[in-house]
Amino acid sequence: MALAIETFKNADLAHGWRPGNNAGGATLFKALGHPLTAPKAHALIEDLAKAGPVAIYDPTNAIGNFHAYYDLSRLDVAGYYVQRVEDLSAAFLGHDAKPVSELAASGAKAVLVLLFDADRVMAPMRHLFPKDARIATLDEMRLPDDMLTNRSNYLDPMNFATNFALMRETDGIHTRVGSANYWSLHGAENPELWLCLFGEDGEELAEWREPLPAAGAPFAIDSAEVRHRFGLGDFTGSLFIHAIRIKGHDVVKYALDMYGEDGRALSCSHDANAWPADYYAGMPAGEEDESVTLFIQNSHPMPIPPRSIGLNIMGARDVSWFEDEIAPFATRAISVDDLLPQAKWPDQVEIVAGRYFVRPRYEVKRAQGQRRIAHANVERTDLKPNPALASLGKVMGKGYIMPLPVLPRDEFNSVMLPTPMATEQSELPIRAELIDASGSLVASRYLGRIQRRDSVEIDVEGWIADEALKLPSGYGHVEFLYDFRDGGEGDGWLHALGRFEQKSSGHRAETIFGAHIYNTGVIYKDEPQSYTNKPPGLTTRLFLRLGSDGLDTICHLIYPASTPWHAKSSTLLILHDAEGKPIAEKPIEIACGGSRFWRLSEMFSKEEREAMGGAGYVIVRDTTCRLFGFHGLTNGTKSFCLDHMFGF
Fold it and tell me: Is 285 helix (H, G, I), strand (E, B) or coil?
């Protein structure tokens, strides 16, 4: 059974939800489940349990979120009272909801008011409460004022820009969280990070504050440095990140790098998404020489009960349940091979998550010792098939596009796998188009109406060989597009996974993302998308973190276009130093519908790279079109990593 918390609010249930400032995301579960809040909440419940009968006043329907975290059955509940007439049909712990106007007659010795910022609401209503009753509000659980951006509205999303990162420091494996102080670019003054590292069993290993550097400057949190700083041993756990006193973005975005001292563990992944979902998908099963481990990071101050997390092969009805309890804020490594021994590539695994944890990472280990991490994606539960998509091409051209790179063929093999990413998706009626870097269509392959249970692998090298194709530039990209020639259903939430292998080493990387409508002046729902303004989102600002210790940085930029747009992009690559100051610029052009693969070592001179001062990043900026990008690192011919980029 899913945890009864509201993790996001969807402004458009037919389509169009996205995380961030535009979503109006639910904040209450973050406020209640914060690591600093939990001890105060438990103390409050213990105190009320001693007070005698307790009435519960719930003016905003917060009871589900609160009770999920902090068991109110420990109280002698005298009644459940609401403010809205619409809520009078509700009940809690056997008590039918009553209007707050009847609260004085409850006989309660205490009243728990499930409300933050309660003073301004309670002042004119105090006469409705039992005389001499203790009035307890959620304000007794507030964070310190210096952690709040907006002290007058506690549940302002800006007060709870939080996220989790998987942190490992064990067996020569290290992890690094990297981002930049983008909040000060929007005017934030003296922002910082409140950080708490939880170990495998959920025990708190370290808590500290990390001042953020100058506006736009990069920062990194490295597991090796954390271990040394706090005198820790080996650990695998969760780093809770809370950005405080911020502006502009209520989402903590980061790149997560995994690296190993033997060079065979180089890998990278995207941020975790800040809210737990019911299901995740897009995790493929391993091949015969691979083992797959799923890392579950309990994102709440209460245990995950046994048999609450399960795995099944996509489209199958039988779920293999994880039998153990997982402690609050604990991290558990689950063997996918043990739970689903029958699953083999290209099978896809669906994760029953029950809103207990944020978007999880999985690790694939090959028999030769190489390791890679990647993330699953949120599987939507609120989407229905959209009949309008079949005729969308009349005005939207290609419509929804899911692009994945074809890395330089002399160095890499590229394999694609369309992935169901909504519980109501029974099929994917799609085609794949192979496109050269110049934007020229090389080949198109209709994949049919792929059923939910089926996994259709697109091996680019095999495709090129089978049809004797030529990819003149040596690299390019594949676009997955809806194709209703034989009927079928779609919902706009089309996803695909890319798996890439370095020919010299056998090292692999995986990345997954979803479709959007790109670069057209016509708007459909919230597409083309813009993360900071209303659509159409026809500009680009991508963050490219850079490698260190001899690692080169690679970047693959794709210019997808649903309808014809500017013939070429006007893209500027801006190299920034360790203080966030721009030190060099390189203009490039990408053909409409095409792509560009480049390396930092070839794009910027040695002198320019040395001027970064040991750390820096590149901003990919274009005010004429929206680009989609992938970032990675290469360790010569020994290993590499790749994932999609993020912007701010």
Answer: coil
